[in-house]
Fold each of these.
Amino acid sequence: MTQRRMGIFYGIGVGPGDPELLTLRALRVLKEAAVLAYPKSSETASENESKAYSIVRAAGVEGNEPLELLFPMTKDAHALEEARKDAAAAIVERLEQGKDVAFITLGDPMLYSTFSYLVPLVKEAGAEVRSVPGVTSFSAAASVALAPLAESDERVIIIPASAGVEEIKERLLEFDSVVLMKAGRHLDDIIDLALTLGVADEAVFASRIGWKDEEVVRGIGRLKGRKAGYFSMVILRKARA
Ligand SMILES: C[S@@+](CC[C@H](N)C(=O)[O-])C[C@H]1O[C@@H](n2cnc3c(N)ncnc32)[C@H](O)[C@@H]1O
């Protein structure tokens, strides 16, 4: 008896929002894969469409068999682990049927993405796993702002804004650019720090890049007191000598 080939599990980076930033490879795999899996926040499951799914749909891809996977927006390690195990089980079930599964993720799958947590769980089941890179949110932000992240021998670091102002300050001593992901709730603290260090004028605030309500602001001092959502970041640049 011949054994059925197990499907391949793909992580597909769909870029930050504009469907034009989907790569040709991402589009090909998404069209060919038997299953298109997309993450959705379990808290907003009935209200909001998955952002990653809306990007590929805007590019004309519905997916042969869409598979919604729910993940809670929480730091509760147990709840996250359970959700990842459930998602991996649903994926492995389809891989065992010989179907390729393409899991879409905002930006790039190798940067703060749910996909990387699924990789070991799916590999454990014996499946082949591949990643298709996507345009990261911070490179898209730097492009919109025309703000180079590094020139010559300069150095860049990417950290979550939750690291806190002391750490951000230290990193800015060591690196020329500091990309602060997940900046939403920390915007005011970042602005205060940037003003104190004299780097607020060069700093870039970028929110919902590639979405209809995209906002990119250079010079963050004037944003003090503003509310910023989850899909926002700040790029700090060391003052040039
Ligand atoms: C879980 S991380 C995902 C990063 C993503 N994998 C990437 O490659 O950009 C979520 C954070 O990425 C940033 N982000 C993702 N999409 C964004 C967008 N369209 N505009 C601005 N920031 C975005 C925000 O800082 C957000 O808090």
Amino acid sequence: MPPNLYGMRRFENKIALITGGASGIGRATANRLALEGAHVIIADKNADMADKAVAEIESDGGAATYMEVDLGDDADVEAVGRAVAEEFSALHVLVNNAAILRQGRIEDGSWLANWEPETAIGLRGWVLMTQVLLPMLKQEGAAIVNLSSEGGFLGRPGQWVYDAIKAGLVSTTKTMAYEFVDYGIRVNAVAPGWIVTEMHFGNHSDPQARKKELEETPITSCIMKRRAYPEEVASTIAFLLSDDASYITGTTLHVDGGRMGMSVG
Ligand SMILES: NC(=O)c1ccc[n+]([C@@H]2O[C@H](COP(=O)([O-])OP(=O)(O)OC[C@H]3O[C@@H](n4cnc5c(N)ncnc54)[C@H](O)[C@@H]3O)[C@@H](O)[C@H]2O)c1
């Protein structure tokens, strides 16, 4: 885990559940929240990666638990709701982070095969997860952060399903903020730019070569002219989850090096 530069412990005695916490942005967020004192529940499909994430947090002196879940499976999601209620007395933080990205253009219909798997997680699974955890989130008040994307604000060829999901997540974040405000629950979203994670190289025939290639490709789509590190998204998520953001709800924060609304090359 990176050093705790500011010595902040904003999540002491808090229980935090992160979907997709085994990799990429989710893993960086799990590390950050654990570093700041949270007991982190990593809810993920990939047991191998999740076990490694838990071991890393524990070896750094943090507390973490793995719960296996396929967000595309309602019964699995409901089982997580029951398991959290059995093991903990309240849930203070929820990060709806897991998603998958598939490519498919409209004209040739190649998107049709992506519809079910992408929406099962990205439109249905994360909302069901929030619903089943709501009784635990209501116990002592809570904060939720949902992962949108710059794609939710752009038109991009070959990614309409993903981008529509990420746009839908922004409006659903507002709905949740409204519906949960009286429970002392704040709900926000972040919309990151491009970060090289498993999402972009995991399914490649040579993942490490693809990762290197992506990392070395110059980026011109934002004014900072570099990609973000997962830790930079994690620190924004941690801010929104913390009492430092006590008057922020229903908003989406862009973490994109100056892309959205900017005139870039
Ligand atoms: N990487 C980027 O460039 C980028 C940009 C903008 C937004 N995002 C968003 O950030 C979030 C995290 O992305 P990432 O790049 O860290 O991805 P990643 O692929 O590195 O991690 C995703 C995690 O979700 C888990 N997961 C996948 N399907 C699941 C399922 N059905 N049930 C439970 N867990 C499942 C994976 O095992 C993995 O641990 C996503 O919502 C993504 O859309 C990513």
